[in-house]
Amino acid sequence: MGLNMRLLCTGIVTLLMCSYLTWEYFHGGVTTHYIYIFENLPGISNWWGVVILPLLTWFLAGRIQKRVPLPDHETTVVKHIPKSVLLGFLWALLLGILISIFFTYGNTRIPMAVMLSMILLALFIPLYRAEYFLGFVLGMTYTFGPVLPIGIGGVLITLIAITYRVFRPVWYL
Hints:
Layout lengths: L2 H23 L6 E3 L8 E3 L3 H19 L15 H22 L4 H13 L8 H15 L2 H25 L2
Antiparallel strand pairs: 1-2
Helix pairs in contact: 1-2, 2-5, 3-4, 3-5, 4-6, 5-6
């Protein structure tokens, strides 16, 4: 993933976050999310998404670039994204959206089951990679804001990496 693709991904995320915040601002104000949904605890504003999500995208795109180098000189860099990276991102994006939808409708069992199944699935697939994390966070951002999905995803990715790197080799003995 060359510099052009890294800039493109970061620009798209920045544009989407700015558009979303503009829409939110003119439709009742920018949302603040509270830890454990208790308003007496500190709140985290969606404004943080303008800083955090582009930085996260830039960082994770760099991680993908180190793992899967692409030519910097290509004008059509999108066609050079490996299918596994794109499918991993889209799969995690869809999973994040589904978890958000179920949580919004008051069902917490299905999101918990999905997250636990991701840990079990990590015995076979390296779900700790950057494209999965980015897709998961972006999929949950609309519902939970930018900060909480990074925290939830960070804990989940850590458990998944431990499962893949430690328990997977033991599983295949």
